[in-house]
Amino acid sequence: MLNLLLSLVIDTQVSDSMSGKRHLVQVTQSSSFQQATSTPVSHIPWSTALAETCFRILPMQRPKTGLLLVNTRAKGSRLRRREAHVWTVHIRLASFFSFGKYCLRNNLSANMKDEQRPLLRSAAVSCYAAPLASSSTSDNGAETRQDNCAASSSSQMPRIQLILLCFSRMMDPVVFCSIFPYIAAMVHRNTGLPVSDVGFYSGLVESLFAIVQTLALVLWARLADRLGRKTALVCSLAGTAVGSSLFGMATTLWQMYLFRSLVGLFAASNLITRTMISEGFPADTQPTAFGWLVFAANAGNFVGPMIGGMLTDPAQQYPDLFGSSTWLRENPYALAGIAVGVVSAFAALASLLWLQETQEAADGAQGTQMAPSELIKAPGVAITLAVYAQSKVLAVAVSAVLPVYLYTPARLGGMQLSPAEISMYMTVQGASQVFWLLVAFPFLNKRLGTQGLLSAIASFYMPVFAGYIIMNALLRSGGGVTREWLWLAVAPAMVSLGSAVIMAQTSVQLAVNDASPNAAALSGINALALVGNGAVRAVTPGAASAVFAAGVKNSLLMGYLVWVVLIVSAIVFRASVHWLPRQQDKSEGADADDSP
């Protein structure tokens, strides 16, 4: 690409802004631009709009857009004061294409239609269709990562695209969790095994989904790079629709194994939606977008079992509607599977019709793709994936231990809550997580940056885990501290503040995106992160539950063994966050100063 150096000398007379007078700006073009473009200066419409655009840019921090690298040197006081100033602006344009797109976005190309620029594309280039990061080579040969969608300080989030991506993301947990209400009964009906053996085979059917999904994620990353994100997402949703429908109609154990594996093979919506948000959304809106993505996944964990439970054996549950159907009596789980398949098919159709592609297959940077072994060796990738895995270990461990802790008698180290109280506790926790994800996280991420916020959350894990120990210790000590008093006075604050750690899940996702060596590696690095997540989900629940049971049964550390182990894990997590590669937060829109 042809790099140009455009020097503008702007004499600015700024009158009193309160008087409502217009700013008088004179722009003169240096000869370097004439020589570089071989175009007479008179043919270039340097309008007042361009002068006002320069005026808006000058007093602000340099935008991290990849289109302009702006350095300003002021002689005298700042531009917004009333005196006259002389500003020298050195604008380094990445290419004729970049300069043309910049002009088009600022409505400055009305008089340039007759000029032939072979690299100048259409002005209808949305932020959503722009790639996440591109590289422009500076004068010293270094590559500077730039965000193409942060050109303005008021970037707009593509809401329709976010809704479609959240809908697609929700299908992964819906498909995974929908069989939980009926899987044991289905195994018992289809096999005739004793009830004592049903649990083993039910667990195997459930695990096949996660195992096959984990093994197939790297393949889906490659397919998404070659076919395009949208095509891969539609294929993934269509495949889960077919697999879910067939699973509901399975009548033998081997059919259940086969169709559940088929569903896991096509369950790639988590990977692809993450990549599409990373590529297609303006950097300053990504924290909010990923917050909604996590919210959609949590909603799927609720919607999936609800569909499965409500539509299992409909001939018996709703005899007035389905009692006359012989097929539904012979296939009591078919309707639940078909319903999930229909929802997944609708998500595939909606994505096919309205979702925009973030990486055209023909324009994909396949030459810069990296093999998993090469990607792990890239600077900062290994430690970022390790931090991602550690955050998942903490989250999954708490999810597995907390319900048991709340139910366990106080003398053994628990809270001794009733099922109704546990349900209320979880409800308050879920509502609190929605607040932290959708309201607090975007603001805190903008103020602290991805790494700063992640460091704060990692530090917050330790007092949260210690709080569970303190609550049980207060119950054990007596002294007028009753379970009702603790439930009303301490538990609400604990559950509300403790839910803040959910923000770590979105923060580590942003850290993974920041660690990607280039835009073409986004799907690959997300695939590696999700492979690690699959391994964590397979091992951590059982391990955490075993540690909790050992501590309670043998009174190890007064029954607090699991919380002590988690506190130590949180300390390791906090130390690991410190070693993350330091990058300027993309939500700030700032970049390192790069003088020409």
Automatic annotation (TrEMBL):
The keyword Transmembrane helix applies. InterPro entries: MFS, MFS_dom, MFS_trans_sf, Tet-R_TetA/multi-R_MdtG-like. Keywords: Membrane, Transmembrane, Transmembrane helix, Transport. GO terms for cellular component: membrane. Residues 161-577 form the Major facilitator superfamily (MFS) profile domain. The keyword Membrane applies. PANTHER family: MAJOR FACILITATOR SUPERFAMILY (MFS) PROFILE DOMAIN-CONTAINING PROTEIN, MAJOR FACILITATOR SUPERFAMILY DOMAIN-CONTAINING PROTEIN 10. This is Major facilitator superfamily transporter. It comes from Cordyceps militaris (strain CM01) (Caterpillar fungus). The lineage of its organism: Eukaryota, Fungi, Dikarya, Ascomycota, Pezizomycotina.
